[in-house]
Every structure is written in C-alpha cells, then in structure tokens.
Amino acid sequence: MNAIGLNDYLLLSVLLFAVGFAGVLLRKNTLIIYLSLELMLVAATLALVAFSRFNGTLDGNVFVFFILTVAAAEVAVGLAIIVALFRKRLTVQVDQLNALKN
C-alpha cells in the first residue's frame, strides 16, 4: 500500500478549488456562492498544510490559523449581508439583486 504523498494532497486541493470555482461561476443562489467561496478557502489551506508537512516546517500551519481567524470574521459579516439582502429584497438569487438602489 502506498503512503499518501504531497501530490495526493495537492490533487485534492485542486479538485476542491475547482468545485468551488465552478460553484461561484455557475450558481445563482448567494448562499451557494458563499459556500463555494469558503470551499475555495479550505482548498488553499489544505495546500498550505500539505506544503508545510512536505517541508517539515510549521509555517503553513501558522498561516492556517490566521486564515481560520479571518474566515470566522468573514462568515459573520457575509451571512449578515446575505440576511440583510434577503430582508430587503425577499430573495437570495443573484440575478434579481442586480440593482443597488432601493
């Protein structure tokens, strides 16, 4: 049985990022777009941890803690914006949120 190497982690990271990128480009629901952005962020953190493990340092893990801190704040602000948009427009579909007035 082969051990899991750097290429396997990077392949998984690229696949997660591609799924998130496709979700951002193809979906119309703001919640799904937001979840896709978070999936892309997770893919980047996975790549950082994989490189950190491959190099034998803790630098990537330290970056992950900073990324998780920023992501926690992003979740609070992003969901608040989505809830405010829903209360104002009664929809979360991006194609119906094209005007900034009213």
The CATH topology, please? Answer: Helix Hairpins
Q: Kindly state the number of beta strands.
A: 0
Instruction: Characterize the quaternary organization of these chains.
Output: single chain
Helix content: over 70%
Strand percent estimate: under 5%
| CATH architecture group name | Orthogonal Bundle
* SSE run: HHH
Report the structural category: mainly alpha
Low-confidence stretches: none
Provide structural commentary.
This protein has 102 residues and is an all-alpha fold. The protein has a single domain, classed as Helix Hairpins (Orthogonal Bundle), CATH 1.10.287.3510. Helices cover 76% and strands 0% of the residues. It has three helices and no strands. It has helices at 6-26, 30-55, 59-89. The mean pLDDT is 89.
Concise summary:
This protein has about 100 residues and is mostly helical.
Write the layout of secondary structure elements.
Blueprint: H1 6-26, H2 30-55, H3 59-89
Helix pairs in contact: 1-2, 2-3
Structure keywords:
102 residues, mainly alpha, elongated, 3 helices, Helix Hairpins
